[in-house]
Design a protein that fits this description.
five-stranded mixed β-sheet, 11 strands, 4 helices, 213 residues, 37% strand, alpha+beta
């Protein structure tokens, strides 16, 4: 089962196992291994066949391009797309897909009040190997580098790459000390809003209502 939240330039897709089919089994195993939270990065494509060839040449070992669809129980509308999965190991261990939506998709983001979330400002990832991450997100995926900052005192490094109107922030985290690359992890989301004070008030009201119920 899924619930799709469409913002101006990005979608948040919540997935949960339902029933006994193979997809439910895979989701159940994923939740058992890692718990709930951010699990997968999906990048948009406007020519997935061309991108498949380019990413294959860059060594990301994309799988076959496959068709997919999902239906809205309330309206009966069916969404269609084509997607491919990149090799996890070549993507720092982070599940990464490339997806091209069919004509007529995505759903249009609804007009929202000032206290609502408008869009993704940036996704936050962590890595133990910033040099490898820079090569992956910059050279292999072709995202434009906006920032590469090193704090020598804290022995940390921060990378920011642009993905459409949003960004991906990659922050260095401490390694285990053995020099091994522990891969990349999805860590957080920074949303964009017109009025951050109103948004905070809205969140507080929602939290109070939840506690009261």
């Amino acid at each position: 089962a899924s619930a799709l939240f469409q913002l101006e330039g990005v979608a948040l897709d919540l997935l949960a196992p339902q029933g006994t089919g193979p997809m439910a089994a895979r989701l159940g195993a994923l939740l058992q291994a890692h718990g709930p939270g951010l699990q997968t990065l999906v990048l948009a494509s406007d020519d997935i066949e061309a991108d498949h060839g380019a990413l294959r040449r860059r060594g990301l070992l994309p799988g076959d391009v496959t068709a997919g669809s999902s239906g809205d129980r309330a309206t009966g509308r069916v969404r269609h797309w084509h997607r491919m999965r990149l090799d996890d190991a070549r993507c720092g261990g982070l599940r990464t897909f490339v997806l091209q939506r069919a004509a007529g998709d995505p759903p249009v983001a609804a007009a929202v009040p000032d206290d609502a979330l408008l869009d993704l400002d940036h996704l936050v990832l962590t890595t133990t190997s910033p040099d490898r991450a820079l090569g992956h997100y910059g050279a292999r995926l072709g995202l434009a580098l906006a920032l590469d900052s090193t704090d020598a005192a804290r022995q940390s490094r921060l990378l920011v790459v642009r993905a459409g109107a949003s960004g991906i922030e990659v922050a260095q985290r401490p390694s285990s000390g053995d020099g091994a690359d522990a891969g990349d992890r999805a860590w957080g989301i920074t949303w964009r809003t017109r009025d951050v004070a109103s948004a905070i008030d809205g969140f507080m009201c929602c939290c109070a209502a939840k506690v009261g119920s």
